[in-house]
Amino acid sequence: MLKSSFFYKSGEVNLTYRVVIGPHSEKLNLPTLSPNTVVKHNLSGDKLHYYQIGNYKTKKEAISAMCSIEEAGVQSIFVASYYNEKRVSTPLAKLLEEMSDTKIAKL
């Protein structure tokens, strides 16, 4: 059974969404993003560039940002879910969202 530590005191789950880009062999010129948007750039040992953009509270916000970036011609892009800064599967993210909405764990 899930413990209440999944939730903040407000009943919300520490779940965020990011736009993930990569791998690319060259560093990308990303479109202009809002000044508060977090952009993490990683260069792997085999010289491939990876990016994580944003800490969006909803999947809808992340998808909107992804569409803007795609319109600028960026490829190999998708939205990923993170719980406490660790990547989680889409089914788990959906469950955490539902738990946050209802404040009830049904496991």
Note down, in words, how this protein is organized.
The chain is α+β, with helices and mostly antiparallel strands. Helix content is 24%, strand content 31%. It contains two helices and five strands; from the N terminus they run E-E-E-H-E-E-H. It has a five-stranded antiparallel beta sheet, covered by helices on one side. The longest helix has 13 residues, at 59-71. The N and C termini lie close together (6 Å).
Please, how many helices? 2
Q: Report the uncertain regions.
A: none
Tell me the Rg in angstroms.
16 Å
Strand content: 25-35%
Largest sheet: 5 strands, antiparallel
Question: Can you tag this structure with a few keywords?
Answer:
single chain, 107 residues, alpha+beta, 5-stranded antiparallel β-sheet, 5 strands
Lay out the secondary structure.
Layout (H helix, E strand, L loop, with lengths): L14 E10 L14 E5 L5 E8 L2 H13 L5 E7 L2 E3 L1 H13 L5
Antiparallel strand pairs: 1-3, 1-4, 2-3, 4-5
